[in-house]
Amino acid sequence: MKLKFIVFLSVLLSTAASFAQSLSEVHFPQYVQGSGTFNAGDDRKVPFVCRMTVSGLIPNATYRYFNRFANTPTTTGIGEGTIIFVKDTGNFVRVTSATLGLAGRYGEFTTDTTGTYTGWFANEAGSSSTFTPGKQVYFLLVLNNGAGGITVKHRIAAPNPVNVINFGSASDSSNGTGVRCTPLRNGSPKQFILLYDNLLAQGRPVTGTFVESDGTENTIANGYAPFYADSVNGVNKAWGTIIPNNLSNGILHIAQRSLDNNLYRLYLSFNGKWPSLGWSPVDTKNTSGGLDNVLVIDGKKLFIINLWLNGEATNEDLITMEWNTPDESNAREYVVEKSIDGGNSFEPISTQKTQGAKPFYRLSDKRSETTTFYRVTLLGKDGAKITSDVLAVKGVIKLNVYPNPVQNQLVMQHPLAEAGATVQLAGIDGRQLFTQNIQKGAVQTTINVSKLIPGNYMVVFNMNGERQSKTFIKK
Questions:
Q1: What is the pTM assigned to this prediction?
Q2: Which strands form 466-474's sheet, in the order they lie side by side?
Q3: Does the keyword Signal apply (predicted)?
Q4: Total domains in the fold of the chain
Q5: pLDDT tens per residue, range 287-298
Q6: Which of 40, 211, 373, 425 could form a Cys-Cys staple with 191, CB 3.0–4.6 A?
Q7: How big, in percent rounded to 5, are the helix, strand and coil portions of the chain?
Q8: Are residues 408 and 372 in the same domain?
Q9: What is the tens place of the pLDDT at every residue in 130-142?
Q10: By the 8 A CB rule, do 349 and 366 touch?
Q11: Maximum distance among all alpha carbons in the chain?
Q12: Which residues sit opposite 175 in a β-bridge?
């Protein structure tokens, strides 16, 4: 019996030892900021956050751990970079020199009955060449034995790499632009922000960060980017990150998740533009701002679907506008405003009260001969004020010709001519007869038609790529 017991125990130990540990992605961003110059003075950090699942561990065991980055998934080292330990309660903890043997310099988690743990992890890049822009690094989880050990038992790397980028203006895969958000309307500190370049949040997020204040010192002295240290660190419900400059779609989906991974809020943009502190939107497509022109999103204007305004000419005299209804339950009314001075000042032309779960609102307005600008502002029940992008509507070209029929001199009345404007004379079959330049600033042009044979003709006014025609009869 003793021999059988020993054999059985040996089989159990062998089976447990052979069970492979692995890391799988839950939310795993594609990019991390890094400088890679070996000079800490060059660091311009922003946080990197991810949510991962580690499997193949001892069930119901408490492990000591730290998370870093390595330049290869098969590393025998302990990785590089600074760790920010995510805590379920209390402040996060920033550690620059991790070890499994000293309290306060490692984190802990407890596996479930299957030997699995899922949680949030946060990091900063280091200064070494591992984090040279353009390189790839691997997220690395370093563990003890799950039984109070002080030495490294497991090194588990994520299967997919993370791309290193740094702040710069070049439009390539190694340069990026800072993005920050002023305090959010909703939420709380220690939540997580994930940015996606598609509406459905498919695949890996572009970047990820946390909502301040997390309780750590993300300061210039600790190597953080100035915009983060000055305008994000310690600011309640603010966040900041970096996005690559070569995003053709821009950021279309921002997910705000809680510590337990519940989706607290999501924000969508159909064109990569987000509300700013002014009336011009923040455009996240093909950025080039680096650190000099950081994109600033107004957190108080973020809604589930951000307000947009479309318009089309339904005929020569009318423009019909249409806008959607973000956060309709909070909306009180919409104010449509119009500018006839180049967008410098706006005056209200219509106010529409909300009408329940109405999917779209529409308004028509008379077109003018000059470019007109429109915008729509949502006024919320909670005092929020959200303004759409500005819609520019080109002026309609209105022509008048007289006398008609004409014998010798045809007079054409037209909008104020800009440089390069022309008038063409054509047969009713479209055959061009001649072209005449129009004097800049003119609103009336005389055309000599005395040599035309009697019949039907067209006069065509051309300006800025727009064409308008009128027919006339030559006697």
A1: 0.69
A2: 432-437, 422-427, 455-463, 466-474
A3: yes
A4: 4
A5: 999 999 999 999
A6: 211
A7: 5, 45, 50
A8: no
A9: 999 999 999 999 9
A10: no
A11: 125
A12: 166
Comparing 1-5, 82-86, 201-205, 308-312, which segment has the lowest mean pLDDT? Answer: 1-5
Other Cβ atoms less than 10 A from the Cβ of 248: the count is 8
Q: How many residues does the chain have?
A: 475
Same domain, 44 and 162: yes
Q: Which of 92, 110, 125, 101 is nearest to 54 (CA)?
A: 110
What 3-state DSSP class applies to 143?
A: strand
103, 208: one domain: no
Residues 39 and 144 placed together within one structural domain of the fold? yes
Both 84 and 140 in a single domain?
yes
In the block, residue with structure tokens 């740094």 = 166
Using the 8-state DSSP alphabet, how is residue 305 labeled? B
**330 close to 304: Cβ distance less than 8 angstroms:** no
Reading the block at residue 35, the tokens are 């400088």
Core vs surface per residue 391-411: b (16+ CB within 10 A) or e: bebbbbbbeebeeeebeeebe
Sheet of 263-268: strand order equals 207-210, 192-196, 253-257, 263-268
Q: Which residues lie below 8 Å from residue 160, measured CB to CB, with a gap of 6+?
A: 25, 28, 204
* CA 387 to mean position of chain CA atoms: 18
Whether residues 39 and 138 fall in one domain: yes
